[in-house]
Design goal:
CATH class of the largest domain: Alpha Beta
Strand content: 15-25%
Number of helices: 10
CATH architecture of the largest domain: 3-Layer(aba) Sandwich
Structural class: alpha/beta
Shape: elongated
Largest sheet: 8 strands, mixed
Mean pLDDT: 97
Oligomer: single chain
Number of strands: 16
Bound molecules: zinc ion
Strand order of the largest sheet: 1-2-4-3-5-16-6-15
CATH topology of the largest domain: Aminopeptidase
Helix content: 25-40%
Order of helices and strands: HHHEEEHEHEEEEEHEEEHEEHEHEH
CATH superfamily of the largest domain: Zn peptidases
Length: about 400
């Protein structure tokens, strides 16, 4: 069945390029959704639209009777980046660009959908195709789940194209690693309250800038002295709003940052300590701090058995030496695919499209990001093989 995907290569390239021209960001992607829906209609695959955003779920019912349900996922959103790659399929939306490869994800999943649908009489059970909005702000998966997308799903798989794991992995190689492969991502917001006064008489007020400086330094103690050295974690303050004049002590300061971890326990522990340290540091210096944690996504945890199964399916398609099953370390970036993996076992895989000769080894989210399109059929073929073998085993 998967062999049909090779013949789709040209079609996949043209779909990817058509989608590349119309990048949209966030939850509402009207042109992108219309493009995907038109293709699904052309293939004769029914779908339901998410009521809250531009996501949609298509369903292929196997002709060999009831059985298991597998979900395959593509994300649809682009980034607020101005494209710097010169090509005849350049972004037509000023200030927006598919700089993470989600255009390729849609093309690969549409290709897989076409082949699976043509062979549906050979399948037991059902295939669900997730086209989700807003991965970049890690909320699209949650919407799709709230709309019932994961109901009845026995296993879930997704692929990210590009160079996320390493730009030095040859194009066309598949990376499927058991266990944790990407980090959690949560946001913290701390409001430090003092008492504003003249800069010449700090004793008449409470200086929130000085308190904020202590908080920022103290937060690094969590990593240095509290999280075990073998457990990776990052605490980054990325935003600090303080003051308005050189000689005035303001009454409030805002600190914002992100926490990345590879372990849910460490994640909860750090969030608790950020709250404590900011509140108590402020108190030490006569001020107050309010800390809000905005929970993002958990770490991406691939199921051991499903990752081994997916690697085996990829080997059958691509050959033994084209599949990588261990990497030196997980990636500290986050992916909302993690939300699906909390509800069903599965694997989040990577397909390298990093080719220095074609200048497709630029970092994700860069205005120069591009992919080696030759690998597109592989993404479809591996999805098809995983679905066929999972449903018919
Ligand atoms: Zn991205
Ligand atoms: Zn991405």
């Amino acid at each position: 069945m998967w062999k049909d995907c090779r013949k789709l290569q040209d079609e996949l390239v043209s779909m990817r390029r058509e989608l590349h021209r119309i990048p949209e960001t966030g939850l509402h992607l009207p042109k992108t959704r219309k493009y995907v829906e038109d293709k699904l209609c052309e293939y004769g695959i029914p779908f339901t639209e998410d009521p809250e955003d531009s996501g949609l779920v298509a369903v292929i019912e196997g002709g060999r009777g009831p059985g298991k349900t597998i979900a395959l996922r593509a994300d649809m959103d682009a980034l607020p980046v101005t494209e710097a790659v010169e090509s005849d399929y350049r972004s037509e939306h000023e200030g927006k660009m598919h700089a993470c490869g989600h255009d390729a994800h849609m093309a690969m999943l549409l290709g897989a959908a076409k082949v699976l649908n043509e062979h549906r009489d050979e399948l037991k059970g059902r295939v669900k195709l997730f086209f989700q909005a807003d991965e970049e702000e890690v909320i699209g998966a949650r919407h799709l789940i709230e709309a019932g997308g994961m109901e009845g799903v026995d296993a879930v798989f997704g692929t990210h194209i590009g160079s996320i794991i390493s730009k030095d992995i040859a194009p066309g190689k598949f990376i499927v690693v058991p266990g944790c492969i990407m980090a959690s991502n949560d946001r913290f917001m701390i409001k430090v309250k003092g008492t504003g006064c003249h800069g010449s008489t700090p004793e008449k007020g409470v200086d929130p800038i000085s308190i904020a400086a202590h908080i920022i330094v103290n937060l690094q103690e969590i990593n240095a002295r509290e999280v075990p050295a073998v457990k990776a974690a990052v605490i980054t303050v990325g935003k600090l709003n303080a003051g308005f004049a050189y000689n005035v002590i303001p009454s409030e300061v805002e600190i914002e940052g992100t926490v990345r971890t590879l372990d849910d326990g460490v994640r909860k522990e750090i969030a608790g300590r950020i709250k404590e340290i900011s509140e108590l540091t402020a108190k030490t210096f006569r001020g107050e701090a309010e800390c809000v944690i905005e929970w993002g996504v958990p770490p991406v945890e691939n199921d051991e058995e499903m990752a081994a199964f997916a690697a085996d399916c990829a080997r059958e398609v691509l050959g033994e030496d084209m599949v990588i099953t261990s990497v030196p370390s997980p990636n500290m970036g986050a992916e909302d695919f993690a939300e699906y993996l909390k509800l069903a076992p599965g694997a989040f895989m990577f397909l390298s499209s990093s080719n220095p000769e074609k200048k497709t080894d630029m970092p994700h989210h860069s205005p120069l990001f591009n992919i080696d399109e030759d690998v597109l059929w592989e993404g479809s073929a591996v999805f098809v093989n995983i679905a066929q073998r999972f449903l018919n085993q």
